[in-house]
Amino acid sequence: MKNTPLKKQKYTRVPPELKRLLLKKLFIDQMSIKEVPPILTQAASSLNLNYSTAKTIVFIYRKKRKAKVQKHKDDSERISST
Questions:
Q1: What is the mean pLDDT of residues 9-35?
Q2: Residue 51's domain spans which residues?
Q3: Residue 78 to residues 35, 68, 82: CA-CA distances in angstroms?
Q4: Which of 11, 35, 38, 44 is the most buried (most CB within 10 A)?
Q5: Mean pLDDT for the stretch of residues 45-50
Q6: Is the pTM of this model over 0.90?
């Protein structure tokens, strides 16, 4: 048998407008994490996104938001200590 190389998976970039629309659909109502998966599935399918893609968008958004909050906290602590 011949070993055929695996085809590389093509990734499509999700436009920023679509990301913002997904995040707006999810976070406008301030839902708890337990309620997000069914809502995430509905939001992803209504925007023609895969669930895993939508999940990754939300993960990255939360990670960036947490880093921004931490940076702000560090800056304010540094200012108050001087």
A1: 79
A2: 16-81
A3: 37, 15, 7
A4: 44
A5: 84
A6: no
